[in-house]
Amino acid sequence: MHPPTWLTAFLDLPADEFDAAVAFWQAVTGYSLSAYRGEREEFATLLPAAGDAFLRVQSVESGPAGVHLDLHAPDQVFEVRRSPGGLAYCLVSGTESERPAPTTWEDGNRSQVDQVCIDIPPALWDDECAFWASATGWELVQGGRPEFRRLRRPARQPLNILLQRLDEPDGPVRAHLDLSADDRAAEVRRHERLGAQVDRVHEGWTVMRPPAGPVYCVTGRVPSADPT
């Protein structure tokens, strides 16, 4: 497997939530939407004003809403694979290289979807951490809390990968999106105006429940202004 030169986060959305979820994430990001594609017109891409795309949406016929990663590399043959804990991911061909800058809103606050958090039950923790470090070739380092590890993102990559050890003893490995923002409280209020609800508040992040699609977090991390 080639080390990825780019990552894409895919929102996997049940058909009955698809339109509402896509509209919500367009509003959250400020991105436009590509033409639909696929046999059922089930795929689309969220398009930043500048830089290469790294967020896509997919209408799924069964199963709950979720998130998966695409790992891009030039001349990569398309494959669907699973991590040791069963989280699906895809190997795809791509040559993207320009990371978009954060979006600046009317109040001057900047925000950006810039992280995929992989949620891992304790029994699978070490295997999943080792797997994602090997799959990406990125350095695995300890996070700011005991339950977090992260992969050190190379320059130009659009997404961080955070690994979170869950409290629940078992269950599936899953993933969600995280946003960074200059002002976390202002960003949460903006999302509430778009129809999301606060689910839980932690010291460094707020868990949000959107009007459609999977839960996500607004974090206290400050977005990078440098798209390289």
TrEMBL record:
Q: Which CDD domains match?
A: VOC (cd06587)
Q: Where is the Glyoxalase-like domain?
A: 11-82, 116-219
A single Pfam family it belongs to is Glyoxalase_6
Q: Which InterPro entries match?
A: Glyas_Bleomycin-R_OHBP_Dase, Glyoxalase_6
Q: Gene3D superfamilies this protein is in? A: 2,3-Dihydroxybiphenyl 1,2-Dioxygenase, domain 1
Q: What is this protein called?
A: VOC family protein
Which species is the source of this protein? Nocardioides pocheonensis
